[in-house]
Prior knowledge:
By secondary structure, the chain is of the alpha/beta class. Helices cover 44% and strands 21% of the residues. It has helices spanning 4-21, 25-37, 55-63, 76-85, 125-136, 158-176, 184-192, 198-207, 219-228; strands at 45-49, 68-73, 90-93, 111-117, 139-150, 231-240, 243-250. Strand 4, helix 5 (125-136) and strand 5 (139-150) form a beta-alpha-beta unit.
Amino acid sequence: MLTHDAAREWIARWDRQQEGYLPDREERFTALIDALEALDRPDPLVIDLGCGPGSLSARIVERLPEARVVSVDADPLLLGLGRAAYPGLTFVPADLRTPGWSDLLGLDRPADAAVSTTALHWISGPDLLRVYTELAGVLRPGGLLLNGDHLDSDDVTPELARLERALHERETERVFGAERPEDWRAWWEAVSADPALAELDRERTTAGADHHGSESHLLSEHVEALRAAGFGEVGTLWQRGNNRLLCAVRG
């Protein structure tokens, strides 16, 4: 059985391995939640897209206890960890690339915001436009998409893109040096070796939840898809190297 304490330990380990790729991860979380707070609504309805085990969702309700967060992911194992660790959150199994995912959310009013961190770059091409178009349909006018991710500008400003990556690499080196945290692959290998997670791991394999397909790592891909989907203003609210918080306002 997966206990609450064991799930929290696995999520803490998840957070550490993610910080190995994002030494300023907590700063990005803080900036994102600051933007939610600036909506000046005490009880915002928020959709967490590609929520993983709920790291961002949990931080939102810690800062904004009246917020209602609906957390969406396609990975049964990560959802299982989230449900065991954060019983007060709402987790919804859904693949954003499958049209109709928003019907599964159980929303009773348009959402005030959608958030995501290090997830939407796994969606590319026509799927990206479909996701943003469907998202626009469940956000209120003036609602926000807040997407924290590594997004590059090589197609528009290649020298700036090179410098942004250099800043990120140097910061990572300053923070960790040779003592890098456990990486993504090692975390998943450890998960597969834990008997308490065996059932969830089998569900994950059956569901084919591994990442696949090409990545949408260019900033321009997301900006163009958002504008085509009906979002008006699109811009970067926070940035450190090529790690940025992209914000789009639903028209």
